[in-house]
Design goal:
The complex is a heterodimer of chains A (146) and B (396). Chain A is 0% helix and 46% strand. By secondary structure, chain A is an all-beta fold. In chain A, the strands form two sheets. In chain A, strands 6-7-8-10-9 form a five-stranded mixed β-barrel. In chain A, strands 2, 3, 4 and 5 form a four-stranded antiparallel β-sheet that branches. The chains are: A mainly beta (146), B alpha/beta (396). Strand 6 (60-69) of chain A pairs antiparallel with strand 5 of chain B, so a sheet runs across the interface.
C-alpha cells in the first residue's frame, strides 16, 4: 500500500518497520514500565534508576471505549476533507492504555474488540507531502502488503 | 494548626462580559466579599489569587499583585497559585495554611476569569515536542476535552447499563438548580428531550451535557477563629481541605494526555481521591455525614461517576439516584445545588471558589429557592490540568 514510508504528523510518533506500523514509546529498563508518547523519565515513584530507552510498542490491543467526535477540533489539528471521526482508547499488553483515532465504521466499533495499529493519511503539507497519524483498525482486517 | 473560618463569600454573575476585564470583575467581587465579611480592604493581611493563563496577571500570573496595585495598596502578602481548573481549591488551601500557621489572621482568596470561546486550545507559543502529550493529542488525533469525557461515558454505559436518558436527566437536574440561581449563566430549565435533541459534541455526549466556557469571578474571606468571633461572623468552619496529585498506575486517561499506565488497585482519577481523602481525614467526619456536594460536572458523566468514585454512592447507584430525583436539593444526595458547571459554564480559576461559595451560602441558609434543607456539612471537589485535585469540607 505504501510505496514510500508514510511521513508522520510528528517525528517520533510511530515507525514503519518492514511495512508494519509500530507506535514509538519509551521503556524503562529499570522497572519495565512502558510509556507513550516518548517520555523524558520514568513516572514510577518506586523506580530509582529510571534507565529509559526508546521502544516499539505492541501493535495489538483491545478497545476499552470510544467516541465519535462531531465537531472540528482547533489547530494544530489538521485533516483534509474533515468529517466526524472516531477516537478510541486501547489497552496494549505492556500495561498501557493509548488514545488514538479509529479507522473503522461506527457499526464496527465495540468495547472489547481486538484492534491493531495502522497509519492514516491526515493532510497534505504545503510541499505536497502527505502527513499521517497512527490509528487503530479491527485486528481481523487484512494487513497491507509492503 | 489553628482552626480556620470562612467569614465572607461573594461571586460575580457568570456569563460572557465583553466590556468588563477580569481585573474589574475581581475588584468588584472581592469588594462584595469584604462587605459580606463586614471588613475593609485594610483589614486584609494577605491575598491569594488563582492565576489564569488567559487574561491578566501582568502576563506573569501575578493576579493578586495586579488586584492590590489597582485597588488596595497596603503592603500585604500576595500569593499567586496555579492549578488550572483546580486553582481556586489550591488557592483556598494556601490561604487556609496562612491562617492555620499563624502567619495571618485575615486572608482573601480570589479567582477571576475570562475565557476564550469554544474548545480550550493549546497554549499559544507551546513547543512542538513529541514528549508533550498535549501536542500529540492535537496533532495526532485532535482530541478535544469532551472526547475524553465521552469515552468515559460510553464505558460507563457498557459497565453499568447507564442510558442516554439517565445522562440527560443529570443535565436536567443541573439546569433546574441553575434556574433557581441568579448567578448562573443559564437560568432556564430544560427537558431530557431537549438535551437529547441538542447537537452531539462527542457521542454519547450532547451539547447540553457538556459545560460551556464562561467569564466569572468568586472570592472568599478566611479568618482565624478569634478574629471571626470578634467580627461576629456566622460560624462556617473550614473543617477539611486537601489538595493532591495523581498516582502512578491510575487507569484514567487524563486530559490532555494520550496514554495511561493502569495498574491493579489504583483508583480512577487518583488526584481527586487524594484530595478528598485528605479533606475527610482532616475534618474527622464520615462520608455519610455529607449533606451536599459541589463537584466539577464538566459533563454529565462526572455527575454519575464522581460521587461513586468518592465513596458517596455505591458503584452504579448514581443512575438510580438521578432517575429518582435524589440529587436535587431536597434529595438523598444533593449534587451541585448551585447548578454546577452545566448551568454556569466553566471559568477555570474561579470555578472551584464558586463551588466553595455555594457551600457557604447553603450552610448559612442563604441559597433561597435552591436551598438544601438544614445542611451541616458541605463538600466541594474539583479537578485540574496537571493531575491537580482539590477538595474542601465546610461545616457549621
Amino acid at each position: 500500500m505504501h510505496s514510500t514510508a508514510p511521513l508522520a504528523v510528528a517525528d517520533g510518533l510511530f515507525s514503519i518497520d518492514g511495512g508494519a506500523v509500530r507506535l514509538v514509546g519509551t521503556r524503562c529498563l529499570s522497572c519495565n514500565s512502558a510509556y507513550f508518547p516518548q517520555t523524558v523519565s520514568c513516572r514510577n515513584p518506586d523506580c530509582r534508576d529510571k534507565n529509559i530507552e526508546e521502544c516499539r510498542l505492541s501493535p495489538k490491543g483491545v478497545l476499552y471505549s470510544w467516541t465519535r467526535q462531531q465537531y472540528q477540533p482547533p489547530t494544530p489539528f489538521r485533516m483534509d476533507d474533515w468529517k466526524p471521526y472516531l477516537i478510541g482508547l486501547v489497552d496494549l499488553p505492556e500495561g498501557l492504555r493509548v488514545l488514538g483515532m479509529l479507522d473503522m465504521g461506527e457499526e464496527e466499533a465495540a468495547i472489547g474488540m481486538a484492534v491493531r495499529v495502522e497509519c492514516l493519511a491526515l493532510h497534505a503539507d504545503s510541499d505536497g507531502a502527505t502527513r499521517h497519524t497512527y490509528c487503530f483498525v479491527p485486528a481481523d482486517q487484512p494487513e497491507p502488503q509492503p | 494548626m489553628r482552626p480556620v473560618r470562612v467569614i465572607g463569600a461573594a461571586a460575580h454573575r457568570w456569563g460572557k462580559f465583553a466590556d468588563r476585564s477580569s481585573l474589574q470583575m475581581a475588584i468588584a467581587t472581592l469588594g462584595d466579599a469584604l462587605d459580606d465579611a463586614g471588613i475593609a480592604w485594610r483589614d486584609l493581611q494577605g491575598l491569594v489569587a488563582a492565576s489564569s493563563r488567559f487574561e491578566g496577571g501582568m502576563g506573569w500570573g501575578l493576579h493578586a499583585n495586579e488586584i492590590v496595585q489597582a485597588a488596595g495598596e497596603h503592603g500585604i502578602a500576595c500569593v499567586n497559585v496555579g492549578g488550572a481548573c483546580a486553582a481556586g481549591a489550591v488557592g483556598f488551601h494556601t490561604a487556609c495554611g496562612m491562617i492555620a500557621s499563624g502567619q495571618a489572621d485575615i486572608v482573601a482568596v480570589i479567582g477571576a476569569e475570562k475565557m476564550p470561546r469554544g474548545f480550550i486550545p493549546r497554549p499559544p507559543g507551546s513547543q512542538d515536542d513529541i514528549h508533550d502529550g498535549d501536542y500529540v493529542r492535537w496533532v495526532a488525533m485532535g482530541a478535544t476535552n469532551p472526547a475524553y469525557w465521552a469515552i468515559e461515558a460510553r464505558r460507563r454505559m457498557h459497565d453499568y447499563g447507564t442510558t442516554r436518558t439517565i445522562m440527560a436527566k443529570a443535565a436536567v437536574s443541573m439546569r433546574e438548580n441553575g434556574a433557581r440561581n441568579p448567578r448562573a449563566r443559564f437560568q432556564t430549565a430544560t427537558s431530557a428531550e431537549e438535551v437529547l435533541a441538542s447537537p452531539t459534541v462527542s457521542d454519547p455526549l450532547h451539547l447540553l451535557e457538556v459545560c460551556a466556557v464562561s467569564d466569572g469571578a468568586a472570592a472568599l474571606i478566611l479568618a482565624s477563629e478569634e478574629r471571626a468571633r470578634q467580627l461576629g461572623a456566622f460560624p462556617i468552619h473550614a473543617a477539611g481541605y486537601g489538595i493532591g496529585t495523581g498516582l502512578f498506575g491510575d487507569p484514567a486517561i487524563r486530559v490532555p494526555t494520550v496514554a495511561a499506565t493502569p495498574r491493579e488497585g489504583i483508583g480512577h482519577t487518583s488526584e481527586l481521591l487524594q484530595a478528598v481523602d485528605r479533606a475527610f481525614a482532616m475534618a474527622g467526619i464520615e462520608r455519610s455525614d455529607v449533606d451536599l456536594i459541589e463537584i466539577a460536572d464538566n459533563s454529565t458523566w462526572q455527575i454519575l461517576a464522581w460521587p461513586e468514585m468518592l465513596g458517596l454512592a455505591a458503584p452504579g447507584q448514581m443512575d438510580w439516584l438521578v432517575e429518582q430525583g435524589e440529587i436535587a436539593p431536597e434529595g438523598k444526595l444533593p449534587v451541585n445545588p448551585s447548578g454546577g458547571f452545566l448551568s454556569f459554564g466553566e471559568a477555570t480559576t474561579a470555578q472551584a471558589l464558586l463551588q466553595i461559595c455555594e457551600c457557604v451560602w447553603q450552610l448559612r441558609g442563604q441559597a433561597d429557592k435552591r436551598q438544601v434543607p438544614d445542611p451541616k456539612v458541605a463538600m466541594s471537589a474539583v479537578l485540574g490540568l496537571g493531575a491537580n485535585g482539590g477538595s474542601v469540607i465546610l461545616t457549621r
